[in-house]
Design brief:
The chain is of the alpha+beta class and 193 residues long. It folds into 2 domains: 100 residues, SH3 type barrels (Roll); 49 residues, no CATH class. It is built from 4 helices and 10 strands. It has a 6-stranded antiparallel β-sheet, with no helix packed on it. The mean pLDDT is 78.
């Protein structure tokens, strides 16, 4: 294949006929090339917990036979020839005879900028949900860790319209996490005995 990455080419057949672009990649095994802004495909990416769903546009490859090099002197498509000078083989344009200059590969559109925009959208959405949480009226919570559940949830006597605090009875203050070992029963509660 005579086309190399960085060459300016024109599409000679297909849906993008007449468009020009720079070759990004050459797939030698498949005899295909990827050209900037040519043969654009759209892919819908499903949302994941880490990133929102999006529509991604990318350049698909096209057959190398569907493109021709553009001569910068004549601004027209040209066939490619070779010339040997001093044991060095160089590519030339057949119509003008000029040497094909080696050019740098153009950088692709900044993918990081698209990622940053998606991150900003996620941050904006989370900021909106936080603002909604602040707007909703939350019940005042008691700071005492030993206060009853209904007080922690904001249903204390003062919220209910009662005058004073409800005192717990003596059975509420007992620790029931460990069974009483001192009761003199002969039966063991353990399994297998």
């Amino acid at each position: 294949m005579n086309i190399r990455a960085g060459d300016n080419v024109v599409v000679i057949t297909g849906k993008d006929k007449g468009k020009t672009g720079q070759v990004l990649r050459v797939l030698h095994e498949k005899n295909r090339v990827v050209v900037t802004d040519i043969n654009i495909r759209t892919r819908h990416m499903k949302a994941t917990p880490n990133r929102p769903g999006e529509i991604v546009k990318y350049e698909a490859s096209l057959s190398a036979s569907n493109v021709m090099l553009v001569d910068p002197k004549t601004k027209k498509r040209s066939r490619l020839g070779f010339k040997k000078e001093n044991g060095k083989k160089t590519r030339i344009f057949k119509q003008s005879g000029d040497e094909v200059k080696k050019t740098a590969i153009a950088k692709k559109k900044d993918v990081k900028a698209a990622d940053k925009a998606a991150d900003k959208a996620v941050e904006k959405a989370s900021a909106k949900t936080e603002a909604k949480k602040k707007d909703t009226k939350e019940a005042p919570k008691s700071q005492d860790p030993k206060s009853p559940f209904w007080k922690k949830m904001g249903f204390g006597a003062e919220e209910m319209g009662g005058a004073g605090e409800v005192e717990g009875t003596s059975h509420m203050k007992e620790d029931h996490s460990v069974p009483d070992q001192s009761s003199g029963g002969s039966r063991s509660s353990q399994r297998g005995s």
